[in-house]
Amino acid sequence: MYMTIKETAELLSSSEHAVKKLIQQRRIRAVFDGEQYLINKEQFNTHMKQVENYKALVEEILNEPLPEDRDIKDED
Questions:
Q1: In which domain, by residue range, is 58 found?
Q2: 70 within a domain of the structure (yes/no)
Q3: Where is the Helix-turn-helix domain positioned along the sequence (predicted)?
Q4: Does the chain have fewer CB atoms within 10 Å around its N or its C terminus?
Q5: With 70 as the cut, is the pLDDT of residue 44 above it?
């Protein structure tokens, strides 16, 4: 499945300018069809899995309960 630069920017939560720059740097593979660049979505599978794992880790940390208050007095 191919995506436009705009769709790729939305998928990566980035700007269209940043995606164009990555294409020029050959960090994103793209095909030019004479009018626009088309990007194969499959090349982002690993990236998207890593993002999902990171989001799950952050969610786990945020949902971790706070330790009980030991009622320690701060003595000056």
A1: 2-62
A2: no
A3: 2-50
A4: C
A5: yes
What pLDDT shows up at residue 51? 86
Q: Return the CATH number at 58.
A: 1.10.10
The C-alpha atoms of residue 34 and residue 8 are separated, in whole angstroms, by: 18
Q: What is the value of pTM for the model shown?
A: 0.64
Within a domain: 69: no
Q: In angstroms, rounded to a whole number, what is the distance separating the alpha carbons of residues 12 and 64?
A: 28
Quickly tell me which residue has 């939305």 as its tokens: 10
Buried b / exposed e along 5-22 (16+ C-beta atoms within 10 A)? bebbbeebeeeeeebbeb
Closest CA to 5 of 53, 34, 41, 50: 41
The two structure tokens encoding residue 59: 């969610």
Domain assignment present for residue 31? The answer is: yes
